[in-house]
């Protein structure tokens, strides 16, 4: 979230901005508004905190006027009514007649000459802003090696948010993070994804990484894009054995159509592999849409694999998290888009090795990055 500093006085503006920078606010996240024109022009940004001056000119270089009330009213009538508000003024004599109006709009009044006071207030608001941070997208990875490609491809910043490992990145003009799950499996994926979606309210949720594959439907080294996922271990055990009751979650059709147009481009696999120089599959295979089935255990038994595949003959990918990501997204209040893709690195038998792990992690991460870019390009 960005901060809008609405102030025409250079010395005062520089003083407040310097304090923000000292609190690790990135310069690019501070929007300066020296006039009402600047204020209205930049109001479309995702602004979490407004720092307001009582007096502001209508145009650059104009005479300052008492526009503070207009600014507050505009904010409250826009989509920014949940933003934090702080007015720092050099005219405290005006406070008595303005206080009721400002405070009724949730705006704190501070006197500029009392630097200790406004800095303390602003610091508390920055802490609250950090708690209220929203992200445009969230990408989940179950393994460090699955997240590593994002770190090598995009400059970002690691941070710990409430014990969860985030790697914050920008894709185009959108801000998001690649979240490393504390452990593999459906339970970890569901809990962490659900909590993060609820807290950061992304418009896109994604997952990339590596998976097993069903020999009849996929090739080794092939990227699978999830069109539907289900959990193979849900059901009921009886004296006659296990009776499965799979719950299915599908990727919405509009998203699938947009992704289909993207992956049907000529040489799309070459685009995914660009920049990668390590071990590759013996046979290059284009990405496909596939059905994923998820469970909590690693499967290395051909007999069990056959039993799982019998539940849906077109299943292509077998993993431990994708169903949970789909389900967490489906149950969220915000209903973000969900895009999941993993690369087949083994055929779920006893012949498991790590030869294609780096390749699989790389091209699935590259796909998610391109998919997110493509989505926001189509929706701007």
From TrEMBL:
Keywords: Hydrolase. Coiled coil: none annotated. Residues 138-249 form the Nucleoside phosphorylase domain. One of its GO terms (cellular component) is cytosol. SUPFAM superfamilies: Purine and uridine phosphorylases. GO terms for biological process: L-methionine salvage from S-adenosylmethionine; nucleoside metabolic process. One of its GO terms (molecular function) is adenosylhomocysteine nucleosidase activity. This is Nucleoside phosphorylase.
